[in-house]
Structure formats: structure tokens, C-alpha cells
Design brief:
Protein name: Lyase
CATH topology of the largest domain: Leucine-rich Repeat Variant
Pfam family, one: HEAT_2
Distance between the termini: 37 Å
GO molecular function, one term: deoxyhypusine monooxygenase activity
Shape: elongated
CATH superfamily of the largest domain: Leucine-rich Repeat Variant
Number of domains: 3
Length: 285
């Protein structure tokens, strides 16, 4: 997928800030956390996170109680993936849990959920705590918090998260639904309710949401996806994953559209494989 000019410029700016920060001493990095330019402060926080150390950990834990929401955001971010001992981890998880539930700033709550997820991913024994937190954050009024919840749940293969993901699949925001569908597909969840949610998502205007639904239903071999897949395969821009989905689904009704793709674009590995699989299935009928 092509990178937009906006995304490219954003990446260039982030890289410039990273280059500015990566060799700075700890004190100067800490000073940059107070900078008016939040993006620069965030790159400084990334470097501090990598460097680690008790001083940075204590500062981050203290800043979680700062009057400045930006400092709380940066603090929550640092605590997400910095190396911690068992005691520091327990304290940090308690802080992040409370921020995720009670902070008045939605962006702070969002970062706290994300960091809590990262911490639980590093120490799987805390997964139950993430599930307990997510029961509340899936209902948060902030789109960012609900999206962060879906991303956090994507990190874990645990069927106990399915009811939470179903709530997120029914969200009003397309980005939330996209990440929830991604979480379902990443972990291979398959239930009748998930399938029904995915069928509903086939009508989404957002391509990323439709993409996840089509891929998911195809892997589940749910033939209700057939017409949506044919529609995508008839477009001027065709993604390899959509061609592969034809093989996942295993519906020989897709052969004509695959032949048309071959006629128009020539053969390629994904197309050849899908045609071969479907022709084999057809020969068995």
C-alpha cells in the first residue's frame, strides 16, 4: 500500500527528532520532556525508555501524578516497555491501571491502556489484570482508549477476550472496529457471533475494516463473504491478500474472476496458487 505524503513527512520529522535525541545525556533528555514540542518530547521519552535505569523509572512513576497531562502521557509511555524489576513492575502496573481508569485526560488513558498491554505482554501472568481493565475500557467514551484496548487485546491469544472484542467489533468508530477485527484474525478466533459481526463489517466504507472481515471470513470458510470478495477482486487495484483469500475460502465460484485477473495482469504466485487449489476442489465435485 502506498505511503501518503503526510505519513512520509511525519516519519521524516520523527527520524530527525530521534537523531537529535539518541546521543544526548540523560539530563538533557529529561529536560526535553518539558519541551513545548510534544513530538520532540516523545522521541526523548523513547530514548529514556531504551536507556532505562532507576532514576528514569522513579521519574516516570512520579510524573504519572503530574498536573501536566503531557507529562503524564510521557510517563505512561516510558513505563510501557522500560526494563523493570519485579517490585518496579508491580508498582508501575498499579499506576498504569489507575491512570487508564481514572485520568481525566483521554490521551493519558489511551497511553496508559497501551502501556499496560505492553507490560502484560512482557509478563503473561498479568493477563487477567488486562482483561479486568479491558471490561471497563471497551466502554470508555474516548475512541482512542477503545482503540488502544483493541490493540492491547491483539497481543494475546486468550479466548476470554472474545466477548470484549465482540463489543469492539460493534463499535461506532471504524478504527476501533479495524483493530478489533485485526485482533480476532491475529489470534484465529472463530465463533458464530464473530462471523456475524464480520458479515456486518463487509458493508463498511472503510477499506481496512472490510479487508479484515474478508480475510477473516475467508479463513473461516464462511461463504457469505463470496460476493464481497468477488467485488474486491474486480477492482482496478487488487491486493495479493485478496487473491490468497480465494484459496482460503475454497469456493470454486471464484474461479472465473481469478481467470479474468490472469488474463488482465498475467500470472503471479498468489494467483497461480489460488487457481490451482480451486481447480483441484472443482475436480472433486
Amino acid at each position: 500500500m502506498a505511503i501518503s505524503i503526510y505519513s512520509k513527512n511525519k516519519e521524516d520529522i520523527e527520524f530527525q527528532y530521534w537523531e537529535r535525541c539518541r546521543n544526548l545525556p540523560e539530563e538533557k533528555l529529561i529536560a526535553l520532556l518539558r519541551h513545548n514540542n510534544f513530538k520532540l518530547s516523545l522521541e526523548a521519552a523513547k530514548v529514556l525508555q531504551l536507556k532505562g535505569g532507576s532514576k528514569v523509572i522513579k521519574l516516570a512513576q512520579m510524573d504519572c501524578f503530574s498536573n501536566s497531562y503531557k507529562r503524564r502521557v510521557l510517563a505512561a509511555f516510558i513505563l510501557g516497555q522500560i526494563n523493570l524489576n519485579s517490585n518496579e513492575e508491580k508498582v508501575s502496573l498499579d499506576i498504569l491501571y489507575n491512570l487508564a481508569l481514572t485520568d481525566k485526560s483521554a490521551i493519558v488513558r489511551s497511553y496508559a491502556v497501551s502501556s499496560f498491554g505492553h507490560r502484560c505482554n512482557r509478563a503473561k501472568k498479568y493477563l487477567d489484570s488486562l482483561l479486568a481493565l479491558a471490561k471497563y475500557t471497551v466502554l470508555d467514551k474516548s475512541v482512542n482508549v477503545r482503540e488502544s484496548t483493541a490493540i492491547a487485546l491483539a497481543m494475546f491469544d486468550n479466548k476470554a477476550s472474545i466477548p470484549l472484542l465482540i463489543k469492539l467489533l460493534k463499535d461506532t468508530n471504524s478504527d476501533v472496529k479495524d483493530w478489533a477485527a485485526f485482533a480476532v484474525n491475529a489470534n484465529g478466533y472463530d465463533t458464530p457471533e464473530i462471523r456475524n459481526c464480520f458479515v456486518s463489517l463487509l458493508n463498511e466504507n472503510n477499506f481496512e475494516v472490510r479487508y479484515e472481515a474478508i480475510i477473516g471470513l475467508s479463513k473461516m470458510k464462511d461463504k457469505r463473504v463470496t460476493q464481497a470478495l468477488i467485488k474486491e477482486l474486480n477492482k482496478d487495484i487488487i491486493y495479493d491478500e485478496m487473491v490468497q483469500a480465494a484459496a482460503y475460502l475454497g469456493n470454486v465460484a471464484l474461479l472465473p474472476v481469478l481467470y479474468e485477473i490472469e488474463k488482465k495482469w498475467g500470472s503471479f504466485n498468489e494467483l497461480n496458487t489460488s487457481i490451482k487449489i480451486l481447480e483441484h476442489l472443482k475436480s472433486k465435485l
